[in-house]
Amino acid sequence: MKIFWWSNAPWVGSGYGAQTNLFWWRLQKLGHEVTLGASYGLNGSPLNLEEHGEKTRVFPLGYTQHGNDIIGSHALHVGADIVITLYDSWVYNPQVTSKFRWCPWAPIDHTPMPPGVRTSLQAAWQPIAYSQHGFDQMTKGGLDPRYVPHGIDTTVFDVKDRDEARAALNLPGKDYEFMAVMVAANKGIPSRKAFPEILWAWKQFIDRHPNSLLYLHTHSGAETSGADLMQILNALDIPEGTVLFADPYWLAIGHPPAHLAQLYNAADVLLSPSYGEGFGVPIIEAQGCGTPVIVNDCTSMPQLCFSGWVTTNQPIWSPQNSWQFKPDQESILECLEQAYQNRGSETLRRGARDGAMQYDADLVTEKYWKPVLDEIESELGNDEGDGLVDLAE
Predict the structure, then answer these.
(1) Which stretches of the chain are assigned E, i.e. beta strand?
(2) CA-CA distance, 295 to 304, in Å (whole number)?
(3) Which class does domain 2-151+360-380 fall in?
(4) What is the DSSP string of 334-351?
(5) Using CA atoms, how far apart are residues 121 and 147, in angstroms rounded to an integer?
(6) How far, CA to CA in Å, does 174 sit from each of 178, 205, 216?
(7) Tally of CB atoms within 10 A around 68
(8) Is the peptide bond before 112 cis (omega within 30 degrees of 0)?
(9) Fewer CB under 10 Å: which end of the chain, C or N?
(10) pLDDT at 39
């Protein structure tokens, strides 16, 4: 089967880029022909790519932000049987996606599925959910989805010695007795990743435990249209040296996965109590490294928490006309206190690692992608149309 895969380029250090990089060549090793298209990370002309003994071609973005002007023509050019998109489904124009066999591998980060998302997915030939929550919401919304979760490379995101990981990071200042890490994009206001609520809780926490560090793997300012986190730090009077930001240069060009694995291994807990998640890859990456997590009790997150704590929340109405869930600040503080009291627990580390192994990329490929693609391929012969039309007509 010929697959055209449209998402962030596999060399881009985003969650979408990482998943593309994990799976395109694995699907090709299953016997499918996978051609990539870059909705972000490539402009101007195609290029050739080779990974793990597999070769493909990567096609660039056109003139619109998400590729509605070019995705169908790319798919037609390579003779794709299906088009898999890995991105928010609502950015795609149904008048475009209904003209080919669209198989969106799509997030649902609200409850219920927002109306705009449902409208976009109604044009799908076969929607694919990547969380159990997404699968449930798509089903309740009248769709007939398949399920394939996101994955991680468990040989990279593996358990290492915490003290050695901290030493390798060369953190400034003292030898911290407790370290929390947050890996999240600082995008949008209000902050979907709950940066203000987390910083409020951190202020209360360090009043009790001053020899602690919160490492924020994100931009501190408005570089990506997010909150000015330095303003929040100042407003809360959080002491200098208790919050550290990642190097903005490396954020811009992308840290290698091995650096993130080192960061997770250095931490006592990952903070990730978002307002809503389509999946939440850092939650699994951290647990792959044996690090427990703090997540919010909504959308995909509680289903991915094998070792850690879950915050309470209150529903908020989002611009997508559905509900997301604001984590309670006192609950975040309570979870941090639990993480502090249980720091170094081997039981938590083993539980985290064991749970994360369910999302090993090789296992996900064999257990989920293979049967789903086999089913899709078998259905191609029952499809009366040829699946692709010339969008220039």
Answers:
(1) 2-8, 33-40, 47-51, 54-59, 82-85, 102-106, 128-129, 146-147, 178-183, 212-217, 243-245, 269-272, 293-296, 308-311, 313-317, 323-327
(2) 9
(3) alpha beta
(4) HHHHHHHHTTT-HHHHHH
(5) 15
(6) 11, 18, 17
(7) 17
(8) yes
(9) C
(10) 97
Residue 21 tokens read as 């990089």
Q: Which helix H or strand E contains 165, and what residues bound it? A: helix 162-169
Burial class (CB in 10 A: 0-12, 13-18, 19+), 347: exposed
Q: What is the pTM of this model?
A: 0.96
What CA–CA distance (Å, rounded) separates 57 from 42? 12
Residue 3: both structure tokens together: 């697959």
Does the fold of domain 162-358 match that of domain 2-151+360-380?
A: yes
Alpha-helical regions (H) of 5-49: 15-29
> Six-digit token pair at 45?
């002309």
Residue 390 has a pLDDT of: 46
Residues forming beta bridges with residue 33, ordered by sequence position: 2
pLDDT for the residue numbered 135? 98
Q: What are residue 56's phi and psi, to 5 degrees?
A: -150, 180
Task: Give the dihedral sign, CA 320/324/330/336.
Answer: negative
Residue 309 bridge partners (DSSP): 294
132-180: pLDDT as tens digits: 999 999 999 999 999 999 999 999 999 999 999 999 998 876 689 999 9
Give me the DSSP letters along 174-205.
Answer: S--SEEEEEE----TTTTTT-HHHHHHHHHHH
Which positions ≥6 away from 197 have C-beta within 8 Å? Answer: 273, 326, 327, 328, 329, 332
What distance in Å separates the CA atoms of residue 368 and residue 149, rounded to the nearest whole number? 8
Widest pairwise Cα distance in the chain: 67
How remote is the C-alpha of 383 from its chain's centroid?
Answer: 32
pLDDT mean for each 10 residues of the chain (393 residues): 98 95 98 98 97 98 96 98 98 97 98 98 98 98 98 98 92 86 94 97 97 96 88 96 94 91 97 98 98 98 98 97 98 98 97 98 98 97 60 41
Domain boundaries in the chain? Answer: 2-151+360-380, 162-358
Annotation: CATH topology of 162-358: Rossmann fold (3.40.50)
pLDDT tens track for 289-312: 999 999 999 999 999 999 999 999
